[in-house]
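cron nightly-structures :: item 1 of 1
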Amino acid sequence: MPAVSRPAFFRHVCGGILVWGIGGFISVPGHAQTAIADGHSRLGSSAPFLAQIDPAAIRDSWQADEIDASRSQDTPSAAGGSLLGDMGGLRPWLARYGMTLSIQDVNELWGNATGGIASTNGDGRGAGTGASYIGITMPSLTADLEKLIGLRGGTFNVSALQIRGRAITQDHLGDFNPISGFEADRSTRLFELWYQQSFLKGALDIKVGQQDLDTEFLISDYASQYLNANFGWPMGPSVNLYAGGPSWPLAAPAIRFRYRPSGKYTFMFAASDDNPTGNRDSNVFGVTGNPSDPTSQTTNDGSGTLFNMGTGALLITEVQYALNPQDGVHHPGLSGVYKLGGYYDTARFPDYRYNTLGQSLGAQGGTPRWDRGNWLVYGIMDQLIWRPSPASPRALGVFVRATGNSGDRNIISFAIDAGLNLKAPFRGRTNDTLGIGWGIGRVTSGVRAYDRARGALVQGNENHFELTYQAQILPWLVVQPDFQYVLDPSGGMGDPSCPTRRIGNEAVFGLHTNVNF
């Protein structure tokens, strides 16, 4: 998800409009119900055990699975656990006051066997293949304010990140999206700091504070088990918008509304600052920001405490419909979740076609013209298509997600990802999931015209394929071997060390682990 590779210059979160409905209200279990928990409850045991969007999604997955285990026989009692147990009595003591302490630790090893770019940021020294390690530790403290101070429906959350290692995408690959959604610049930083209040028996909740929106908007629940960043926060917003927007590891000041008039419908809206770091790192043009590393997540805000509100506003909305939603006990039929949404960013973006004099930017050079606003629309389908019996843990699900946006100020014009997940593929492996996924990103007409005008190799489509197996080894340990193949990295962009030669297709192997402390 974080965009530390060359082309992921604009990452952002999405925007929209608040929709109100009329009807009876339902009580949602737990006033701090998360989007990850919603997906688990509506898709039942067919959802992947852990959502690999970012460490916050992993935390929410562990908690959701523990809730599922307590109310259903579909999930074994060993679904969730922690390595450190009650921490010598600390966790039970905190629980008496409504507080939950969780620690997520992610470690990954990656290597590309073929293709890619030369190491040391494409200066021509070193090999195009190599190995890489990345690791993240996220402690998080969540407080139920009803237990703590008597404020009914109130929840407080604070979390931090310790990020280490180096990103293989930046060093060896040069893809549009990182090969792993956990790649990020090394730092120790504040992550989220927010307060959430629920109303109307849980039908409405409002969250205010420093937030990442990629665990709530634009999510495919089935796609969330994959490790390629595109399956988490998709290629359109990830590549097109500034600095990654309010998405891992960069949170931003925001307010988010969520309204659920029934078990089938959900309406969401958020308004956020669009640029957590404050860098206007205008993609390949390097107008401002850090020209030597335009996608830097630490140039102006390595601590996560900037709380920037001086750039554009990002507005995002999403409408969800759940077909045959599961509740952990009843199984009304094959379940599905369908989502439509979009965003609008009020900031200015550099134009790929023209400079400030109205001339061709590619042919004449100069400073790009700045265009006001940016938008994207999207649709998502998660559908369970087969289960041998209503209560069986084995299930086959399919997902499709598509995004589209304007072409003059963006790198990607449209993107699609899709895949198949088989839950519990082997006897006795209830919480394992085997998945095969595919995604494509199409370079905009503006970028292609820019390439032609300056005599560079013209970029087209980037395709990526992923085969992955998520296995719960111990109640507190998940291991995930992974294979990815990238066809035409960055749409066939020229190799930085030899611009007349396209970056070679990449075969990438990885091993990912999650530990719940």
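cron nightly-structures :: done
The chain has one domain: 35-516.
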